[in-house]
Write a structure and sequence with these properties.
single chain, 291 residues, alpha/beta, TIM Barrel, three-stranded parallel β-sheet, 12 helices, 13% strand
Length: 291
Amino acid sequence: MFKGSFVALVTPFNGGKVDEAAYADLINWQIENGTNGFVPTGTTGESATLTYEEHHKVVELCVKYVNNRVPVIAGTGSNSTAEALELTRAASASGADAALVLTPYYNKPTQEGLYRHYMTIAEGAEIPLFVYDVPGRTAVEIAPGTLARVAAHERIIGLKDACAKLTKTAEVIALCGPEFTVLSGDDGLTLPMMAIGARGVISVTANVAPAEVAAMTGAALAGDYARAREFHYLLREINETLFIETNPIPGKTALAIMGRSREECRLPLCEMAQMNREKLTAVMRRLGVIE
C-alpha cells in the first residue's frame, strides 16, 4: 500500500487563503501522471504556517479529492506531543490512511523522550504512523535503536528517512525488519535507498515531475535498475535545483511557471530571487516539463 512515489504536496494559496480549486487540479494531475500517494500538510505543504483549522481543512480536502484512488499520509508533526496527538486524531477522523509524525523540533528531546513521544501518539490515535527523521530541520536525530523500539508497536509502520546516511538506512532496515516500510525523504538518494531496501519516496520533485519520479520508483520496485538509473540521472539536476532556496519556494515557483498554481508562499517564506528563478526555469526546460 505504501510504496512508490508519494508526493509531498504543496499547499496552493490565493490571496492568503487555501486555493481549493488549484489543490483539486494538482491532485488530479498527479494521479493522472502515476503518483502512488499523497502527503499533505508536511514541510512542503507549509504546515508550520497553517492554522489548526487550515491544517484540518487541507487534510480533509486531500482525502476528498483523492477519493480513495491512492493512499493519503497526512503530516501531523509538532514539537508538542499533545499537539501532534491532536493533529493525528484529526487526520484519522478526516479519513487519512496514515500519519507522518516528525521528530519534535527546537526542544531537542533525548532518545527516551522521542520514544515516549511516539508511544503516546501511537497509543492515542488509531491510525498507522510513519516516523519522520529530518535532523536538518529539527536539530534532533532518532537513533536506529530507538526506531527499532518504536517499530515494535503495531501502529508504527514506517519511516520517512531524510538523514542522507545510507549506512544508517541499512541499519534501520536490518533492525526493524521486512514489515517496516522505509521511504526516502531525499529525492537525490531515492534510488540508492531503494537498492538497499527502501520502498519508495516522499518526494518534493514529484510536485514538478510526477511521471518521472513514479517511473523511477516503479522500475526500482520491479527490479529494473537499468531503467531506474535512467530516470535517476534525468532527475538529478531538478532534484538539486528544487533546493536552491528553502523548500517549498522553488517548487511553488516551478508550478507557477508551469501554470498549475500561484507563486505564493506565506511569510517568513517569500518569492524566489530572480537569478535563481532563471536557473530553475532553465533546468525545467532541459528536463522537458516546460517548453
